Amino acid sequence: AKNVKDEDKLYKYEGVLYSSIMSPQENLKGLENFEARPDDLLLVAYPKCGFNWMVSVIRKIRTASSGQNEMPSGPPLIEFFPPEVQQLAKERPSPRFLGTHLHPDNIPSSFIAKKTKMLVVFRNPKDTVVSYYHFMNNNPVLPNTKSWDAFFTDFMKGEVAWGSYFDHALAWEKRMDGPNVMIVTYEQLKENLVDGVRNISRFFGFTLTDEQVQTIANESTFNAMKESSKNSHGQHGNVFFRKGEVGDWKNNFSEAQSKQMDEEFQKLLAVLV
Ligand code: A3P
């Protein structure tokens, strides 16, 4: 990735920016025919909303309830699967655990047709953009951002990898009433992780004891995960465990930016009514 020039790191697929290194066109084209299963577990999140946190929670739920230990490595993002891995996925036993940051328009339609259960994670857009800004400068696959102000402007226009936060939010608001869709927010999970773990495990059809739920919640706090990532990820751990707080936006936003974000959100709500 270091040999790729910053300006070549992103490209547009159907109008949405994606990583040319991790999600080249052949991946996204192949996904158009991806065969979802009704018993897949799909985790959906806009970048920086807590995806990796929930990957870890779901893997722990699966391990606790079936005793089976899944391959621990790698993010299960389907858009990172090259065509040959997409082929291999066909042979994986059910239930498969898959995830995606894809723009709602680019999620393989068979997930909808097969009524696959989808856990969708959202986070306050102000904290999301701050987290994303820091991530850009720590991730060799993505271009370095010029400045906070420039990144904020790109984010508001949806000119960032995986597209517009607001497009994602609107699409999922419209789908949230489906019985196969569960929406959780980063803020709810921070507030009460025990309830979060219990609700998520029930949604995916796992039965855990109260003790198991409690243990998973204890192991999944920011500090616990950051600590254990030192063993699994070494230095890379810091890329995914930065602050883990609600409200960090206050350290970055100007008053005008806060107002602009509020107005954009109001516009989105107005479309929904
Ligand atoms: P910050 O940059 O605000 O710290 P994603 O996994 O979707 O890329 O999201 C990354 C964000 O989730 C980062 O936010 C990261 O610190 C936070 N995060 C990771 N693990 C967490 C945990 N166990 N509890 C709370 N936040 C966590």
TrEMBL record:
Source organism superkingdom: Eukaryota
Keywords from the named record: Transferase
EC number: 2.8.2.-
Matching InterPro entries: P-loop_NTPase, Sulfotransferase_dom
Record domain Sulfotransferase: where: 38-270
GO molecular function: sulfotransferase activity
Pfam family, one: Sulfotransfer_1
Protein family per UniProt: Belongs to the sulfotransferase 1 family.
Protein name: Sulfotransferase
Species this protein is from: Osmerus mordax (Rainbow smelt)
